[in-house]
Design brief:
This protein is mainly alpha-helical and about 775 residues long. Among the domains are: about 70 residues, Beta-clip-like (Beta Complex), CATH 2.170.270; about 60 residues, no CATH class; about 35 residues; about 50 residues, no CATH class; about 60 residues. Helices cover about 50% and strands about 10% of the residues. The radius of gyration is 30 Å and the shape is globular.
Length: about 775
């Protein structure tokens, strides 16, 4: 959740209602530093105690009882041969085990077995190494060594397999000095079988599909912009009072062309609903997976085998390297604050991590610049400046000639050489819209930040988890260089307010449980929240000409249609003309982003509304696609078009199609054997509905084509499947990029079908 938990919000609201009117009024006009000073004076010990009690309810400390629960549940799943579920449960067990203990090593060893039986041999080997690193018991080593040798044989890595077998033989021979046991005899039998298998396999090493699909070829910008690293050379940064900062095409841009590729300056995973069920000492245990259980908390990449933080049960990583980088850059401070950060919400967490990544020296410098600019009132912000300009003109430091607005003034956020890049300097210059937030909202954010900063002061020197902490000399030097807590608080409050209309939700397609179904059900889910300074340059349109997609913490913007030279590059902030009417879109944009949208789609819809009878449900003209007007008898709103239609007839057709779509979805969810002709027929009807609502080149039509491609592939309708795959790949490549999971799966289906030229195609209707 973005904001603090409901209990803290209710507590702060009660405090707000108790304040004198004069104090409340001060929050209406006060600058950031004044809000912080007010909140510092208003924060009471009772508030801190209440926050502490809430944080204890969301504790992320390692719990031995939780370790035992997840280990036992993992064993049960393993015995049922539910190896994927077992691996997930063992992963949750490692999160609660202490490092360098037998408990940790056993969880990694058990997880390696679960991956072995899924033929995930590379991941199995990694877990075997982790188990041994954390002190796997000597008496159990032969079992782990045998599994390692089997993996190497399966992977065709013969030399390594031979060494592993030799080490295992030596280990077994040393044990033969004692009385042979049935277990040892069984081990010797397995070893003889493995040696025989290794000797018989004399052919060339084969490729084995033993892990996640190999990473697709990464897509890069054709030519990077010299002034905007992360953007294509085909765009230029401009600024004017009516549109603020924005990107313009400097040449014709074709659909699918990559315009921006940017790694988040900062990102924080959103805790899932499942997580709240298993946090805190009194919480019930839950074996479901939250988003944070399946993604690296630093790079956001999906991972099947997480590496847990050594100090808390929450943070998890894809590798030890990511874990160490996170620890060095921010997690050594965040680790002991886990419960407090979960209580205060994602926005406070992003704000803290932003400051930690930037470094206190730079934060101190920019905050002082901010305070000096406000005190001197040296630069005024033009009235009516659109909020998605996202910059504070008081802090414009860029000196480059090329990145200047129409007035000739430097564009805020640019460096001294005139370049604009994904840096803390650019993040700091995003507009917080302090004057547009309600006084109560500023009180909630300010009090939360001040309370967090007090906790931060206590936790700034955490006990060392990896053997050694800073020396006295290092500690003294760092304390000298650290800014005052009030400086942290001003910067963090600025970032929390910025996030209200500058936060970028990092999304990913998540699969629903659909084992055995004809199609894989996927839904777009918000995975994390972050700052993307370059992507933030894009202004909003309810009918955008770009699509935004994510791969881990990297965001990519591609042209979704032809963009002519001189046109603005536009992105949709959420309210889209295909999903909401103009009134709903305007209300949402006004409440979250503080502006009235005047994009072409809104202007066109306003004109149509003013010139036609109000609609009871919009329909488009079948001839020219303009809005139909009238009650029961409909006619085209364009005077030059003579098309007519009957509203009852169109409503009946729409209801019939919607019912068919529901039937198709039920068939796809419930049919394990494959009545694919009926499912395909219903999906073709679904395509008509989606195309009418979203258009023939929309991402929604791409997802429907993907489902139809899966059905036809499973039904071996080769000819039609190849045609649909080609269409789906074309649409999804534009919106999601050629490296997306769906496009990769489509390419695999196509390759498989092309290998079967003589297979009967079957009926296509």
């Amino acid at each position: 959740m973005d904001l603090p938990v409901e209990e803290w919000q209710s507590h702060v609201r009660r405090r707000w209602l108790q304040l004198q009117p004069s104090v409340r009024a001060a929050f209406s006009t006060g600058a950031l530093q004044e809000v912080i000073l007010l909140c510092s004076s208003l924060l009471q010990p009772e508030d801190e105690a209440f926050l502490q009690r809430l944080a204890e309810g969301y504790s992320v400390e390692k719990d031995p009882n939780a370790y035992l629960f997840y280990k036992e549940e993992g064993n049960k799943a393993f015995q049922k041969k539910a190896y994927k579920a077992a691996a997930m449960l063992y992963s949750q067990g490692t999160s609660h085990a202490r490092p360098n203990t037998q408990e940790m090593s056993l969880c990694f060893a058990n997880r390696s077995a679960a991956f072995f039986y899924q033929a995930q041999y590379e991941i199995c080997l990694e877990d075997i190494g982790r188990a041994q690193m954390h002190g796997y018991p000597e008496r159990l080593q032969p079992k782990l060594m045998l599994r390692k040798a089997k993996c190497l044989v399966a992977l065709g890595r013969r030399q390594e397999a031979a060494l592993a077998i030799r080490d295992l033989e030596q280990n077994v021979a040393a044990r033969e000095a004692g009385t042979g046991t049935p277990h040892l005899q069984d081990l010797q039998r397995r070893l003889r079988h493995l040696k025989t298998r290794g000797q018989e396999d004399k052919g060339p090493a084969e490729a084995h599909p033993t892990g996640p699909a190999p990473a697709s070829k990464e897509v890069h910008l054709k030519a990077e912009n010299e002034r905007i690293p992360g953007a294509a050379s085909s765009v230029s940064l401009c600024s004017d009072p009516s549109r603020g900062r924005h990107l313009i095409a400097t040449e014709d841009i074709l659909p699918g062309e990559l315009l921006v590729k940017e790694e988040a300056f900062v990102s924080v995973l959103n805790p899932g609903e499942t997580l709240w069920q298993r946090l805190g000492p009194e919480a019930g245990r839950d074996s479901g997976a939250a988003p944070g259980d399946l993604r690296c908390h630093r790079c956001l990449k999906p991972t099947m085998a997480t590496v847990p933080c050594q100090g808390c049960s929450y943070a998890k990583y894809c590798s030890r390297q990511c874990m160490q980088l996170a620890w060095e850059r921010y997690h050594r401070t965040e680790c002991s604050l886990g419960g407090t950060l979960l209580t205060l919400g994602v926005f406070c967490h992003v704000a803290l991590r932003t400051v930690l990544l930037a470094g206190f020296e730079l934060v101190d410098k920019l905050v002082k610049t901010l305070q000096g600019a406000v005190n001197s009132e040296a630069v005024s912000v033009p009235e009516g400046q659109p909020p998605m300009e996202k910059l504070d003109a008081q802090l414009g430091l860029g000196k480059g000639d090329q990145n200047r607005g129409l007035s000739g003034m430097p564009i805020p956020g640019c460096d001294r050489d005139g370049s604009y890049q994904s840096s803390y300097h650019a993040v700091f210059h995003l507009l917080p819209h302090t004057e547009r937030h309600s006084p109560e909202r500023k009180f909630l954010c300010g009090l939360s930040v001040v309370a967090l900063c007090k906790k931060l002061g206590e936790a700034y020197w955490p006990s060392p988890l990896w053997g050694q902490g800073p020396s006295k000399q290092e500690a003294a030097l760092t304390m000298e260089q650290s800014p005052r807590p009030s400086t942290w608080a001003v910067a963090m409050l600025r970032h929390v307010l910025q996030l209200h209309c500058n936060a970028q939700g990092v999304t990913a397609l998540q699969e629903a449980e659909s084992e055995g179904d004809l199609v894989t059900e996927r839904r777009q889910a918000r995975l994390a929240t972050g700052f993307f300074p370059v992507i933030s340059l894009l202004n909003h349109s309810c009918s955008p000409n770009t699509s935004l997609a994510f791969r881990g913490s990297v965001g990519t913007v591609q042209a979704s249609r032809l963009i002519a030279q001189g046109q603005e590059i536009l992105h949709c902030y959420g309210p889209h003309e295909c999903r909401m009417d103009v009134a709903t879109r305007q209300q949402k944009l006004r409440s979250q982003y503080f502006f009235d949208c005047c994009c072409q789609a809104c202007r066109d819809e306003e004109v149509r509304r003013a010139s036609t009878t109000p609609k009871r449900g919009g329909f488009r003209c079948p001839t020219c696609k303009a809005a139909l007007q009238g009650d029961d008898a409909l006619c085209c709103s364009r005077g030059s078009c003579t098309a007519v239609a009957s509203r009852p007839h169109l409503v009946g057709r729409l209801q019939d199609l919607q019912q068919r779509v529901e039937v198709a979805l039920e068939l796809l969810r419930g049919d394990k054997t494959g009545d694919w002709p009926k499912s395909a027929a219903h999906l073709r009807n679904s395509l008509q509905v989606v195309e009418a609502q979203h258009g023939p080149a929309s991402v929604e039509i791409g997802h429907e084509l993907f489902k139809l491609a899966q059905v036809l592939f499973n039904g071996f309708a080769v000819t039609e499947a190849l045609n649909v795959i080609e269409k789906a790949e074309e649409v999804l490549s534009i919106h999601c990029g050629p490296e997306s999971e769906q496009v990769q799966e489509l390419q695999q289906m196509k390759a498989c079908l092309l290998e079967l030229p003589g297979l009967p195609t079957g009926p296509t209707a």
